Here is the input.
Amino acid sequence: MTRTRKQPDQNEEPRENEPGESREKQPKATPGSVQSVDRAVSVLEILARLGEAGVTEIADELGVHKSTAFRLLGVLENRGLVGQAKDRGKYFLGAGVLRLAGAAAVRLDISQEGGPVCRELADELGETVNIAILDDDAAVNIMQARGPASVTAQNWLGRRTPLHATSSGKILLAHLPTTLREGLVARTLPRLTEHTVTGTVALRGELEAVVEQGYAIAVEELEVGLAAVAAPVRAHDGKVIGALSASGPVYRLTDDRLTELAKRTVAAAVELSRRMGYGF
Here is the structure.
């Protein structure tokens, strides 16, 4: 008697290979399974937007039957990507999403992501653009791009600069936890030029202004003849992890020019922060 081969269920997920079974026998992903993945991602996006939602609301958003939405939520809940408030039956994003986000954030390197942003800003402004990060009690420049007008600018790459006398340093200092920031501000700070701010009260006030306005300016505080403006770069969790700066000679960077540079540098820092996962 000839036995009829069982036809696969269209809604059945592809099974894993048995030990020793050839990979060539593994079923290919069906249009239905791809659609399920798309819907599952849509569920996460819905919960991210709404905060929490019930099965009926999610089904309506997806345009599917409640049973389909319930199955999707069950799979996501089993993997820890969504949770459920037992008293209300509402679903919300689970801790598993944070685990995935954290893993992705680790792979996002500010120097790698910052390269295109630095070069574009340097070309746009014609000045030297740097990315600096905190290195103990100093700012260290980890990336630099030079614009067409900065061909004679000095190389800042790898150089450690004092936090209180540079625009990048002020950004990093201003966004430190209060205890750590106060400890650095209260120290005896070196006066590098006649314009360097070294007084505790004056520096504290300037740092408060930096946070409020979203950028920092330093004019001849590190070196005579040098001016710079910087803006904060944030990680996915909102923490300031770096500073994007544009610098040049004071004869080019007048007050009006610095104001314009501040706007463009802030915009570029926002773009770099987006690349680092902030705002999603």
